[in-house]
Specification:
353 residues; TIM Barrel; Sulfite Reductase Hemoprotein, domain 1; 2 domains; 11 helices; 39% helix; 20% strand
């Protein structure tokens, strides 16, 4: 029996052609890491990210030129684009005019009522959603008077939501990020009990690559296990393609989405007599040429010796356990045949096909 996580039901919000909340799949988001006005390169980056599984893309809008560039970018991509706005509310107005699919505002630096009202009016006119992105590092002074940082984050978010609701905006997504993973988990859990707006999950400013992978996997994964979250972004210092691949692995590991086969590989020890890492990478590379959707329910095992496989990997649909110049092909823990080492991977891939 496959255990399933019971997701909390949230309001459905449509971002371009992607719907989040309700029973919709948890969407994967990433961010372009170059100036938005460099439209040709940005379009190429976005299409590369879409090819590996990104479903919503965010771009930084730091001036009017960036905002206007969105119109051209939209003509070259097929996934929804989100404008990330800070400090100057007029950039949000320009981005909306350019056809952006969602606007992200930071309540810590765009908070004047008359400015928010003007943005809200345009959002309603174009039926565009907004993400309220509260960061622990950009709280207004009046909220910092609260000693509990998470209470301050929630207070700033709820006040901003109330202001938008008063202006008639209902298509709202909320994120509450901190570089402190435990703070982030706590604040999302509390916000989840207050509203039914979709929640965008992420841990911000996570540090170096491995720090970011661990913090994001633990933080986002913990909240997903609670049934919380409608979109996710793994924030990493480096190539955004890594962000998307790790997000897919998080969702795949929790059986919340299916992205091709799952792998069981032993960590190897002194019993292993093959380069198992190299062989596993070769299998993964070769299977990428096949239709991954047909392998969504497939678990493949690559084990370094007969001690670990097939016994340790008996739940795998198909696998190879390597020995001394030979390997055992097994299915659901039962040996199918013994093969020469040089022929093992070809046999495995042909069997999968």
């Amino acid at each position: 029996m496959v255990l399933k996580i019971k997701r909390n039901k949230t309001k459905v919000v449509k971002i371009g052609k992607v719907s989040i909340g309700g029973n919709n799949p948890i969407a994967i988001q990433s961010m372009v890491k170059r100036e938005t006005k460099l439209t040709k390169d940005v379009i190429n980056d976005i299409n590369n990210l879409e090819n590996v599984g990104c479903e919503i893309i965010r771009v930084a809008v730091k001036d009017v030129e960036d905002a206007k560039a969105i119109a051209k970018i939209k003509k070259g991509i097929s996934i929804p684009i989100v404008a990330d706005i800070h400090f100057n509310y007029k950039f949000a107005l320009e981005a909306i005019d350019a056809g952006v699919d969602k606007v992200r505002l930071n309540p810590g630096n765009i908070f004047k009522k008359e400015q928010v009202k003007e943005i809200a009016s345009k959002l309603k006119e174009r039926d565009i959603p907004i993400r309220i992105g509260v960061n622990s590092g950009s709280l207004l002074d009046k909220y910092l008077k609260v000693k509990d940082i998470n209470k301050a984050i929630i207070k700033q978010a709820t006040d901003y939501i109330k202001m938008l609701e008063d202006f008639g905006v209902k298509n709202i997504v909320v994120s509450l990020k901190s570089s402190n993973m435990l703070e982030t988990i706590d604040v999302y859990r509390k916000m989840n009990r207050i509203y039914d707006y979709p929640l965008h999950l992420g841990i911000t400013a996570t540090g170096l690559l491995y720090d970011g992978i661990v913090k994001s996997s633990l933080g986002i994964g913990t909240l997903l296990l609670d049934g919380i979250g409608d979109t996710i972004r793994v924030s990493l210092l480096g190539n955004p393609i890594d962000e998307v691949n790790i997000a897919k692995n998080i969702l795949n590991s929790l059986n919340l989405r299916k992205f091709g086969p799952k792998y069981i590989c032993c960590p190897t020890c002194g019993r292993c007599q093959v380069d198992l890492k190299k062989k596993a990478e070769e299998v993964s590379t070769r299977l990428k040429s096949l239709d991954s959707r047909k392998m969504n329910n497939l678990t493949i095992a690559l084990m370094g010796c007969v001690v670990n496989g097939p016994g340790e990997a008996k739940q795998a649909d198909i696998g190879i356990a390597f020995g001394d110049k030979k390997g055992i092909l097994f299915k659901k823990g039962k040996i199918v045949k013994t093969i020469n080492e040089d022929s093992c991977l070809e046999a495995l891939i042909n069997y999968i096909k």
